[in-house]
Write a structure and sequence with these properties.
Elements lengths: L3 E4 L22 E6 L5 H14 L8 E5 L2 H23 L4 E2 L7 E4 L1 H12 L6 E3 H11 L11 E2 L2 H17 L7 H10 L4 H11 L5 E3 L5 H25 L5 H7 L8 H15 L6 H10 L3 H4 L21 H19 L10 H28 L1 E2 L1 H12 L13 H9 L2 E4 L7 H12 L5 E6 L13 H12 L4 E6 L1 E2 L4 H11 L17 E2 L5 E3 L8 E6 L3 E2 L2 H9 L7 H9 L4 E2 L2 H12 L1 H6 L1 H8 L5 H20 L3 E3 L7 E2 L5 E5 L2 H14 L3 E3 L9 H14 L4 H9 L10 H7 L1 H15 L3 H12 L1 H9 L3 H20 L3 H12 L21 E5 L8 E6 L12 E4 L5 E4 L7 H19 L2 E10 L17 H20 L13 E6 L6 H10 L9 H9 L12 H11 L8 H13 L2 H4 L49 H10 L1
Parallel strand pairs: 1-4, 2-11, 2-12, 3-6, 3-10, 7-9, 8-26, 10-11, 13-14, 16-27, 16-28, 21-23, 21-24, 22-23, 24-27
Antiparallel strand pairs: 1-5, 15-19, 17-18, 19-20, 25-26
Length: about 1100
């Protein structure tokens, strides 16, 4: 056969400037490849495999390929198989070249090599391509003998093991009176309102985590023994003081006569009273005294703040002036205060005692709980997801030896005999345990190769345990060997030249990638100049900024506050001018200053510029976020209307930009909900990409209520819950009468119960949908397919589980309940929300989810809210050791630095998803104070991004003002447009879009139905139109509504002030018809409860003389218990 030549196309396989191979397979055994986003990492990995197979003659079955996701594994397997098939078919057809011809390095496929490739293709399923967990799972099963494990080991879910064993562990090891943990557990249950489910979840999260837990308190019993001596000393001093001076406590008298600081006096005296009361309660057990004294914050008493100038009637300038007996009492208290401080037991506020008790309990019971679970798994012959890595690491770790080198373990010998080379992709997402496995298996062997491919700038999974510091440590270890080579990919094949140049400028700002040291940013070049986005709009370049403008309002309330304020920063003439401008709204800083200048004059306006900007700036973040969402929606519609052309550099011609080629990225799912509502109003088809949380939706809860009523049809309360759901839509006030006047409802439940007993679940589910008509009603009420899709998906899932596992309906209901409570997890992708339809739609996704994807057009939305507060802080100390802090004062500086660095890496991932155009929000600084942006945000993504955008925006403005020459799009790939905040209250905002029906792709169901119903007689009330009839029908059929006491109170007050004409119109605002998004609480894995969307009702309560309960969570909980 003739030779078949393949040109080596990856930059890794070319020659350097001195004509040497960049990568030499026979010499370079420890290789680190760093590939920036879009530089063809997967293609380079394919070529590395071909180089090893065709040049080094290593069989593919001897090359271990490890990735970090199932999707990447399947993609790599498919691409390698396709590449091999193309080579074999081209060689068999007698071709001289496959792919582009050239004079560079190439592979030559002769007959022996062809036979090698044909054999690999025939047995391609045996080519070892795994995820890290898949690889470890295979080692556990295939090498059970070397791992000293049972041969029939089974994988189980950790959550289910914890659910089954946790309460048994508490009953047997923690709660018995003889247990050393019993006193602490009792205190936790009493004083911390101990919730066992919360404790269980936190322990479950901590069990697999590696790191040092701090504070390292001794056991509670040992602490109590140490506490006993100084406590008894204080009690003795107190008794002596009381007996020598009967009447009011002498310390109380002493502090009354001390010259205390006015701002601190109340807190100091309150702490003192708690301590005096505690010392007067000798019946309290020692552990209760310990807690109460800690809660009283004794440091306020031992180190009181005193005024500098002596006040009238005061006798003591400081505690140093106290009589000797009081000094002795203070010395005893100071000894206890030092005891608390030395043991890191200091509270910022008394309520933190709950956190201390929980942290202490976790520190005490986590080690024995881990041991119990491991012993139980060993006895049962099972392992969980995290055990895979632990078991393999333990069995490849060399045992201690007296020789110079530790001998390899049996498992290490077995793996090394099977593989010659290991290539690990996406290694920036590794953790210490994974690195330990590959280091011991391959790096410590002189005859094996290890290649690591990754990009530390894309290490964004710290909340899952991945550590970029581990990557940097691994890179240094690899490069310390003599046979090491560090390679990099610097040509971007994803994006246009203009976009690449723009990103280079942004990321070369010195603020990026400062921490940890060793990451950095290197410029990338365009690898495919054929990639092009063609847009007729003159002011739309590769990176376009959406400038959110500030809003200033001179309101009556603000002016009144200034007039009452003693330290009013404005003189009388300025106040007169501001009162003349009362009610003025300005949409930019320039307009505001010009308005004030017209009234007060330019000189005085300039003099008080900073104070004016600070005083009258509107800082509500929600309003600009909604306006940004509106602007994005309008821009998306304009892009599609302008028929922008996209050429990906692969096809011969351009194509019109479609909806699915546009992506909007956000930080939190609550921001995605804002976008989805705006897009729905604008008639833009959208889809959430891989949105999880199917079993946390409103539909899941209502299906559970309905099926519980079927299983327990003899329990009226369950039937009531089902009737309140949207399956029946019966209002709460009509519930009892409906159960009496509509006996057919009870007949439905009896018939469904009979179907369930006969095992006819499929027929049961079909009959529920047929009889309740929930699908038709849901489409009619919400004009959305989301609820209908969720109901169908959940019922299909339950039917599948019943059929495959032989479950009864009652067992299926229990399974659904555990999924809703997250006590069990659904298999694979069963928890992903299915797309409502197959139509092409704009993609909405979080920044984390977008990793590995690319789109011609990308918008960045949100990221203005800060990271959530956390009880547990995970970070690294100065020695690189992983730390998990369960309790402490303030936020650790190391944690803040690592969180900031990870936000930067997350932004890098988000910005590099764009191939043709990137839209970025921008918030400028106030000209009166260069260090302050008009929108307040801290510890968030946008705070990391804005400083690097400032010089670019400054240059844009200078060009537009003619201060510097205009530059072409090739020279300067940036443009901007301003967003002017609209003057819409939340209610007006909602009402405006209700009065303007959506367009194009979403039909106006209300108008169509009104036209249909107008042809037939309707039970209309007097002067009622068909449209009003539809509104009334929607209101009556909306089913059970979740509301709050505060909202009910506000609606009541609004009802009092609404005029009669408004009352005669049925308004959609009269009731709380919420969409499915309002009830979902789906979050990213690194989001917490504190990151839920804030309320956007924005209704001010009118002043009323009526006595009423305060709003808030406490009142709501109180009413819930009362009802």
């Amino acid at each position: 056969m003739s030779l078949l030549r393949l040109l080596k196309q990856s930059d890794l396989l070319q020659k350097s400037s001195d004509s040497k191979d960049i990568f030499h397979a026979s010499h370079d055994h420890s290789v680190v490849v760093e590939a920036s986003a879009g530089t063809g990492k997967t293609f380079a990995l394919e070529e590395l495999v071909l180089e090893l197979a065709l040049v080094e003659r290593i069989p593919l079955q001897k090359i271990l390929l490890v990735t970090f996701t199932e999707k990447a594994t399947q993609e790599l397997r498919t691409r390698l198989r396709t590449r091999l098939r193309e080579i074999v078919e081209a060689a068999q057809s007698g071709k001289d070249w496959l792919g582009p011809e050239g004079t560079g390095s190439c592979w030559e496929i002769d007959a022996p090599r062809l036979e090698q490739l044909k054999a690999a293709l025939m047995d391609f399923d045996a080519v070892p391509i795994y995820t890290i967990h898949g690889f470890c799972n295979r080692l556990i099963r295939e090498f059970a003998f070397e791992n000293r494990l049972l041969f029939n080991q089974q994988q189980v879910d950790t959550r289910q093991l914890m659910e089954d064993h946790f309460r048994i562990f508490l009953r047997s090891k923690v709660l018995p009176p003889e247990s050393t943990h019993s006193p602490l557990m009792n205190l936790y249950l009493v004083h911390a309102e101990g919730n066992l489910e919360t404790l269980q979840r936190e322990l479950l999260r901590l069990i697999p985590q590696q790191g040092k837990l701090i504070p390292q308190w001794p056991s509670f019993l040992k602490m109590m023994q140490s506490f006993h001596t100084p406590w008894k000393k204080l009690c003795h001093e107190d008794q002596s003081l009381r007996s020598s001076q009967p009447g009011s406590h002498p310390m109380r008298e002493a502090f009354w006569l001390m010259n205390l600081n006015g701002n601190s006096e109340k807190g100091i005296l309150s702490s003192l009273e708690r301590i005096i009361e505690l010392l007067g309660s000798p019946e309290l057990p020692p552990e209760e005294c310990f807690l109460h004294l800690l809660q009283s914050q004794p440091e306020k008493v031992t180190r009181p703040k005193c005024a500098k100038q002596m006040k009238s009637g005061k006798q003591y300038a400081s505690p140093d002036d106290f009589p000797d007996a009081q000094k002795d009492w203070m010395a005893a208290l100071e000894e206890l205060e030092r005891f608390f401080t030395e043991n890191e037991l200091v509270l910022e506020k008394p309520e933190q005692i709950k956190k201390i008790l929980k942290a202490w309990l976790i520190l005490e019971i986590l080690p024995p709980l881990r041991s119990e679970l491991e012993q139980m798994k060993l006895e049962k012959g099972v392992y969980d997801f995290d055990d895979m890595l632990r078991i393999v690491e333990e069995n490849v770790q060399p045992a201690n030896s007296n020789g110079s080198e530790n001998p390899a373990t049996p498992l290490t010998h077995a793996v090394r005999s099977q593989y010659e080379t290991a290539i690990v992709d996406e290694f920036q997402d590794t953790d210490p345990r994974q690195w330990s496995i590959f280091k011991n298996l391959f790096l410590k062997s002189a005859s094996h190769r290890l290649m690591l491919i990754g990009d530390p700038k894309q290490a964004i999974y710290g909340f899952r345990g991945a550590e970029v510091l581990t990557y940097l440590e691994a890179r240094d270890s690899m490069l310390s060997r003599k046979d090491a080579k560090r390679l990099s990919l610097k040509r971007n094949f994803r994006s246009t030249a203009g976009l690449i140049n723009g990103l280079n400028r942004i990321f070369q700002n010195p603020n990026w990638f400062e921490s940890p040291k060793g990451i950095g940013y290197s410029q990338v070049m365009c690898g495919n100049p054929e990639i092009l986005l063609e847009d007729s709009h003159e002011n739309r370049r590769a990176i376009h900024f959406l400038e959110i403008q500030p809003h200033f309002r001179i309101g009556r309330t603000q002016l009144q506050k200034l007039e009452r304020k003693k330290s009013n920063p404005f003189p009388k003439e300025m106040m007169i001018a501001l009162n003349r401008a009362e009610g003025t709204d300005c949409r930019s800083e320039d307009d505001f200053l010009k308005t004030v200048s017209r009234e007060a004059g330019p000189e005085i306006t300039g003099q008080f510029r900073n104070e004016l900007l600070k005083t009258f700036l509107q800082t509500n973040r929600r309003k600009p976020e909604r306006e940004l969402a509106e602007t994005i929606a309008e821009e998306v519609k304009d892009l599609l209307k302008r028929k922008v052309l996209w050429h990906d550099g692969k096809e011969n011609q351009s194509s019109t930009l479609k909806e699915h080629q546009i992506c909007v990225l956000f930080r939190k799912t609550s921001e995605g909900e804002i976008l989805s509502k705006v897009f729905r109003r604008h008639g833009i088809a959208y889809a959430f990409y891989k949105q999880r949380g199917l079993f946390q939706t409103r539909e899941a809860h209502e299906i559970l209520d309905l099926l519980n009523a079927v299983v327990h049809e003899d329990q009226p309360q369950r039937i009531r819950m089902a009737l309140l759901s949207r399956f029946f839509g019966i209002p709460l006030h009509k519930l009892d009468s409906a159960m009496i006047s509509k006996p057919q409802l009870m007949l439905h439940f009896r018939r469904w119960r009979s179907m369930a007993k006969e095992g006819e679940s499929g027929r049961l589910f079909h009959d529920i949908l047929e009889q309740t008509r929930v699908m038709e009603r849901e489409l009619f009420v919400s004009s959305s397919e989301r609820g209908v899709t969720n109901i169908s998906q959940i019922l299909e899932y339950l039917q599948q589980r019943i059929r495959e596992n032989g479950l009864s309906l009652a067992e299926a209901v229990r399974h659904l309940q555990k999924l809703i409570k997250e006590q069990e997890s659904a298999e694979e992708n069963d928890d992903l929300l299915r797309l409502e339809s197959e139509k092409k739609a704009v993609q909405l996704m979080t920044m984390h989810t977008s990793k590995g994807l690319e789109f011609p057009v990308v918008f960045i939305f949100g990221g203005f809210s800060g990271d959530p507060p956390s009880d547990h802080y995970r970070y690294h100390d100065e020695n690189g050791q992983s730390i998990i802090r369960l309790f402490g004062i303030g936020t650790p500086e190391a944690y803040l630095q690592e969180a900031s660095a990870e936000r930067q890496r997350l932004l890098y991932v988000a910005l590099t998803r764009a191939a043709g155009r990137l839209y970025l929000p921008y918030v400028n600084v106030l000209s009166g104070n260069e260090s302050t942006r008009w929108m307040k945000f801290d510890k968030c993504c946008q705070k990391e991004l804005m400083p690097s955008l400032d010089p670019v925006l400054e240059e844009i403005h200078q060009q537009s003002e003619g201060k510097i020459p205009l530059r072409t799009a090739d020279e300067f790939p940036f443009s901007s447009s301003r967003i002017i905040l609209s003057e819409m209250s939340n209610e007006g905002f909602h009402q405006e879009h209700l009065e303007n029906p959506v367009q194009d792709s979403i039909p106006n169901l209300e108008v169509e139905l009104a036209n249909l119903l107008s042809r037939n007689p309707l039970p209309l009330k007097e002067k009622e139109t068909p449209e009003n009839f539809i509104g009334r029908l929607k209101k009556n059929s909306r089913g059970f509504v979740v509301t709050s006491f505060s909202r009910m109170q506000q609606e009541r007050e609004k009802g009092k002030t609404r005029n009669l004409n408004e009352l005669s119109k049925p308004s959609f605002l009269d009731f709380d018809a919420r969409s499915e998004e309002d009830f979902e609480e789906t979050r990213e894995p690194d989001e917490t409860e504190s990151m839920k969307p804030e309320s956007t009702t924005g209704v001010l309560e009118p002043i009323s003389t009526e006595a009423k309960l305060p709003g808030g969570v406490a009142t709501g909980n109180f009413l819930h218990e009362m009802l």
